[in-house]
């Protein structure tokens, strides 16, 4: 097991809907979020929950990865989740009444990282049947759902209007190490000095746990020298 996989199982105990799939930790947030298209990029911030690992909305590269997600039991049936994909720019379909259909609706769907950069096209084979259909214009955000049918691994992504409904963010974490603001990365751990005056080691331990971490344990002079 990797360190990330072990931490992912810890999140599963906390959230009850986390899975480690192909080297990626996926976590489905409990609370639905309602955002506008303009505010959608801020959803990536909801995925900063595992210190030491970069969190972002999920990126689904292909159908085999999607099937493995379904097999993991991560997704609830008939529940929709935000992933890191949206349509940008939205095609101008004024010549057909402003509602894009068919091949026009399939244009410009990309996955985005937490910095707002495009990191890949949305594969056509991860869409649900007859999607995207832009039934509630403008459906410019992608949501993932697992469908209820005889084949329990059926499902895919739909286009949705974020202004009309709230969905649960689906987050992913990779082995790319990163630290949240205020922490510094030393080797494979994140450290932060908290300027308080705890009266004992037990009190200091409590302060760190309230921060979401643990009291630093230094076992060698080399690490001590690096921190100093």
From TrEMBL:
InterPro entries: C-type_lectin-like/link_sf (IPR016186), CTDL_fold (IPR016187)
Gene3D superfamilies linked: Mannose-Binding Protein A, subunit A
Name used for this protein in its record: C-type lectin domain-containing protein
């Amino acid at each position: 097991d990797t360190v990330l996989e072990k931490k992912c199982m810890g999140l599963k105990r906390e959230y009850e809907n986390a899975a480690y799939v192909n080297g990626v930790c996926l976590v489905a947030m409990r609370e639905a979020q309602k955002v506008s298209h303009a505010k959608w990029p801020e959803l990536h911030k909801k995925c900063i929950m595992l210190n030491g690992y970069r969190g972002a909305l999920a990126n689904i590269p292909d159908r085999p990865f999607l099937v493995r997600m379904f097999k993991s039991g991560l997704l609830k049936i008939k529940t929709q989740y935000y992933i890191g994909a949206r349509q940008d720019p939205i095609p101008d379909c004024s010549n057909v009444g402003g509602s894009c259909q068919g091949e026009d609706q399939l244009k410009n769907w990309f996955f985005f990282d937490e910095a707002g950069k495009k990191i890949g096209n949305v594969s056509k084979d991860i869409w649900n049947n007859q999607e995207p259909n832009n039934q509630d214009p403008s459906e410019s955000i992608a949501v993932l759902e697992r469908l209820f049918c005889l084949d329990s691994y059926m499902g895919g992504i739909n286009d949705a209007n974020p202004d009309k409904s709230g969905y649960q963010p689906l987050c992913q974490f990779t082995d790319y190490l990163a630290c949240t603001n205020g922490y510094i990365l030393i080797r494979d751990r994140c450290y932060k000095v908290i300027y308080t005056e705890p009266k004992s080691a037990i009190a200091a331990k409590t302060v760190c746990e309230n921060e979401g971490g643990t009291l630093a344990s230094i076992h060698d002079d080399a690490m001590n020298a690096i921190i100093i």
